[in-house]
Specification:
With 375 residues, the chain is of the alpha/beta class. Helix content is 29%, strand content 28%. It is globular and about 70 Å long.
């Protein structure tokens, strides 16, 4: 019987290296691939920008593949990464949102583009080193399930994968803790066993998002006003790309007590400032919906909702109020609901689905437009 062929996305880190090792032990024909996504042609710059797909990642992944005795290739995905991740990221900031580029990269690069290329070379699956599990549920749908280790769980950033993508994906690392993965790497003699995890956005290693955007985007960045919620001017700011909802530091305002960004208004270039309690909200709206464990969100149901990667999650009731708009009411107010981030809903340990957080005004506009079309 022919072995099933799986392409493993290898970042040069311990997780994807052990994923390849585990799949070999499970009897798969394994091919290692690193995705070339860096945009800078200068070798020194690219080497410094290690991330998950820099030149250092290529060298480490190649060495691991050699140790495991599997074929290894570097595939060029620079164009799709530029369009689906970098352009999306910069456009979101310009329009006053705070995006999550890893979610876009997962959906459109690490899955859509890599899966298509892998199928072309006869692969049955792709695999990654993400801390998550994949299961087919009694209702026939395939869903992402929490990793066995809550501290490393990466399901939030995977909520936007499609049913077809999940059907052709393996995630062997999700059944282990980080400590177990490092121990396996040591036992197999993999030199990456103690390699530290990459934390930064791969194309902005210094975390200066605004500086990156100003350097790489041709756009008339404008200063604007800090205002309170009544519209009173409190001072001037250096451009909306420098701020996000919930921010306290770096405002340059002398108010005599801590104040926070509560809203960004791209249409007027205003940054709204408020008190600590003004940062909390009990209602969240999102669009660009993706369904995973749930077939729909038509019913008024209760889920655990996460509004950012580091959010532990809070109970909420969810209702679909338009074709592509979801209303989520949290039982207790949540802090710093940020347009551009993802609202991910969990049904127990399983990702039910989610969407991109939008402003209340956007939700109202979309709802009104749908009602107008129906008349």
């Amino acid at each position: 019987m022919n072995k099933k062929r799986v392409v493993v996305g290898m970042s040069g880190g311990v997780d994807s290296s052990v994923a390849a090792c585990l799949l070999l032990e499970q009897g798969y024909e394994v091919i290692g691939v690193t995705m070339q996504i860096w945009q800078d042609e200068d070798r020194t710059v690219v080497e410094e920008n290690g991330g998950c797909c820099g030149l250092s990642a290529v060298e480490d992944a190649r060495r691991v593949a050699g140790k495991l005795g599997i074929p290894y290739y570097v595939m060029n995905f620079r164009d799709v990464f530029r369009e689906k991740v970098i352009d999306y990221f910069t456009d979101a900031y310009i329009h006053g949102n705070t995006p999550n580029p890893c979610i876009a990269c997962n959906r459109y690069v690490k899955w859509e583009a890599l899966l298509r290329r892998s199928m072309e070379i006869g692969a049955d699956y792709i695999a990654t080193g993400h801390y998550a599990r994949i299961e087919r549920l009694p209702n026939g749908r395939i869903a992402i399930r929490n990793s066995v280790t809550a501290s490393k769980d990466q399901t939030y950033a995977l909520y936007n994968l499609t049913q077809d993508q999940l059907a052709h994906t393996l995630m062997p690392v999700g059944a282990y803790t980080k400590e177990e993965i490092r121990r396996i790497a040591e036992e197999k003699g993999l030199f990456v066993a103690s390699k530290p995890d990459s934390q930064e956005i791969c194309f902005i290693p210094d975390r200066d998002y605004a500086g990156y955007i100003e350097k790489h985007v041709v756009y008339p960045f404008r200063e604007g006003n800090f205002v309170d919620r009544k519209g009173n001017v409190l001072g001037r700011h250096k451009g909306i790309i420098h701020y996000t909802v919930g921010q306290r530091k770096g405002l340059g305002l002398s108010m005599g007590h801590p104040v926070f960004v509560t809203e960004i208004r791209p249409e007027t270039d205003e940054v709204v400032i408020g008190e600590a309690e003004d940062v909390f909200s009990d209602t969240v709206y999102c669009n660009r919906l993706n369904f995973m464990a749930a077939e729909d969100f038509s019913d008024d149901r209760e889920f655990l909702g996460k509004i950012r990667y580091g959010h532990r999650g809070s109970l909420c009731r969810v209702k679909r109020i338009a074709d592509d708009v979801l209303q989520c009411r949290f039982l207790e107010p949540v802090r710093a609901v940020t347009p551009g981030q993802a609202l991910v809903l969990y049904d127990g340990e399983y990702v039910a689905g989610g969407g991109t957080i939008i402003r209340v005004t956007e939700a109202a506009s979309m709802l009104q437009a749908q009602r107008g079309d129906a008349e």
